[in-house]
């Protein structure tokens, strides 16, 4: 494992990762409410990860449309470019490369996204009850959960408006603009988010795409928009600029069509210029990707990712003339929570890059410490497991837990309860760095606050103001409306999670 995980790997564009450990995208919830540029909290958070020998570091969602945010505090591509508007992005790329930038610095990747119909009401960057854009006018629903849950989803997500061809043309331009901003501000590449039920994934899925034109979800059209976006970006950026794609294997599994997933994977892999394909899954209607349960560390979802990655990697290298082809690298994300699983993935050739998500929060220095542990005693499994310590299992007080048994559960809201702890852990990492409490390569691992309570985490996550917002509330209607809605969401989380 030590040779594989910490060996360098080259991408088709020519860029080289110093090792195969990738800090993949995590939703930070740290930008200004209503969306905006990276701020000092984001700069500090990514400076922490950059200290510790990751091969590649990805941002969380960077939205290409300011009117289609997810949970309100997204980084957004600015509409107007100037030294003032580009400077925060340049600072972020510099933070991700670390102050000791060399050829061994981690690659800095910006994840580009458009939320589509998953852009929430009030917090999505639009006026209240203004519909979001989507392939078709198919509303968000949690099937089989009852009328009350349907009402909550109706309140949080309006029935979207089906996109016109003009809207689609504008969307392509927005993704290209985001990629060019990444080039301009010093990022090494971008990743297109085609997972978790966001807009590009919505066009592929027959559940959300009911179109009958050239952008339908039929077999000949399902990848048309993604291919158009990808090719437009590849033509606009330098040849050595990394372009990756994150796909949604779980979405295919939900519809029982894994054969279609493999076909799409192999089609994308043969597009000239794809550097890596990340395999993930889940969406806001079935938000399992937000949940963690240490007791179920080898869940069916996790097994789906691993099995699909293994099959996809083998199929990729079985293509005709595979040895002569320049093939993308396979990045597996989800469930890599123990060194044993990492060993198994690498030994079996299930993936070539290893995506680490929440363990990067509980142990941001994981690559450095893991490398040292392997050098000292590769057989000391207890030391390995300590590096992958999970966050706490979030539980409500007993009387509230009994009350929730009488009420229907809202999948998205319940997932948000757990997400709040990790959000606060990231915010605290940023605070510690801002206070000068991180000492690179000192051998002391930062430990998050495992004593943080459920209600405290929820309150801190939703009712926090960034430094800019404390100075002046520039978007009063968004802040006021958002806080009112979030108060309702908070109550829902307490009583319905």
How would you characterize this protein structure?
The longest helix is centred in the last third of the chain and has 24 residues. The protein is globular and about 60 Å long. An 8-stranded parallel beta barrel has the order 3-4-6-9-10-11-12-13, surrounded by 6 helices. A two-stranded antiparallel ribbon has the order 1-2. Helix 4 links the parallel strand 7 and strand 8. It is built from 19 helices and 13 strands. The chain has 497 residues and is α/β, with parallel strands linked by helices. This is FMN-linked oxidoreductase.
- Total helical elements: 19
Percent of residues in β-strands: 5-15%
How far is the N terminus from the C terminus?
40 Å
Q: Work out the number of β strands.
A: 13
Stretches with pLDDT under 50, minimum 5 residues:
289-301, 490-497
Secondary structure: helix percent: 40-55%
> What gyration radius follows from the Cα positions, in whole Å?
21 Å
**Helical/strand content category:** alpha/beta
CA-based shape: globular
Main beta sheet strand tally, sense and closure = 8 strands, parallel, barrel
Overall pLDDT level? 81
**Strand order of the main beta sheet, please?**
3-4-6-9-10-11-12-13
Protein name: FMN-linked oxidoreductase
């Amino acid at each position: 494992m030590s040779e594989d995980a910490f060996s360098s790997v080259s991408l088709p564009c020519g860029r080289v990762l110093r090792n195969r450990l990738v800090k993949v995208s995590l939703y930070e919830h740290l930008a200004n409410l209503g969306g905006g540029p990276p701020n000092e909290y984001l700069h500090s958070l990514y400076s922490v990860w950059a200290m510790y020998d990751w091969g590649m570091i990805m941002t969380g969602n960077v939205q290409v449309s300011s009117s289609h945010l997810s949970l309100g505090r997204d980084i957004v591509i600015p509409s107007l470019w100037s030294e003032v508007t580009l400077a925060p992005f340049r600072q972020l790329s510099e933070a991700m490369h670390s102050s000791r930038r060399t050829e061994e610095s981690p690659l800095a990747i910006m994840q580009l996204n458009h939320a589509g119909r998953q852009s929430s009401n009030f917090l999505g960057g639009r006026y209240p009850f203004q519909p979001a854009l989507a392939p078709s006018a198919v509303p968000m629903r949690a099937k089989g959960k009852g009328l009350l849950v349907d009402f909550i989803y109706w309140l949080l997500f309006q029935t979207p408006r089906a996109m016109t061809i003009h809207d689609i043309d504008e969307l392509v331009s927005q993704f290209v603009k985001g990629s060019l901003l990444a080039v301009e501000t010093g990022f090494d590449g971008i990743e297109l988010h085609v997972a978790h039920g966001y807009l590009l994934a919505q066009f592929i899925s027959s559940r959300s795409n009911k179109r009958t034109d050239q952008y339908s979800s039929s077999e000949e059209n399902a990848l048309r928009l993604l291919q158009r976006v990808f090719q437009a970006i590849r033509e606009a950026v330098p040849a050595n600029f990394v372009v990756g794609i994150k796909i949604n294997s779980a979405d295919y599994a939900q519809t029982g069509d894994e054969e279609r997933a493999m076909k799409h994977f192999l089609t994308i892999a043969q597009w000239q210029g794809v550097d890596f394909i990340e395999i993930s899954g889940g969406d806001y209607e079935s938000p399992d990707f937000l949940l963690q349960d240490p007791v179920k560390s080898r869940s069916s979802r996790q097994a789906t990712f691993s099995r699909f990655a293994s099959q996809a990697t083998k199929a990729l290298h079985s293509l005709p003339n595979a040895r002569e082809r320049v093939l993308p690298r396979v990045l597996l994300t989800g469930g890599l929570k123990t060194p044993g699983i990492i060993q198994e993935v690498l030994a079996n050739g299930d993936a070539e890059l290893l995506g680490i998500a929440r363990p990067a929060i509980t142990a941001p220095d994981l690559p450095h410490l893991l490398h040292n542990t392997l050098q000292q005693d590769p057989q000391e499994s207890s030391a390995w497991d300590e590096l992958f310590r999970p966050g706490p299992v979030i539980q409500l007080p007993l009387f509230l837990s009994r009350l929730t048994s009488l009420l229907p559960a809202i999948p998205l809201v319940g997932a948000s309860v757990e997400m709040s702890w990790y959000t606060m852990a990231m915010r605290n990492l940023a605070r510690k760095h801002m206070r000068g409490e991180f000492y690179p390569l000192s051998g002391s691992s930062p430990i998050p606050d495992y004593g943080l309570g459920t209600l405290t985490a929820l309150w801190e996550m939703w009712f926090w103001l960034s430094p800019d917002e404390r100075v002046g509330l520039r978007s009063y209607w968004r802040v006021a409306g958002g806080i009112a809605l979030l108060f309702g969401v908070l109550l829902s989380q307490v009583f319905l999670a």
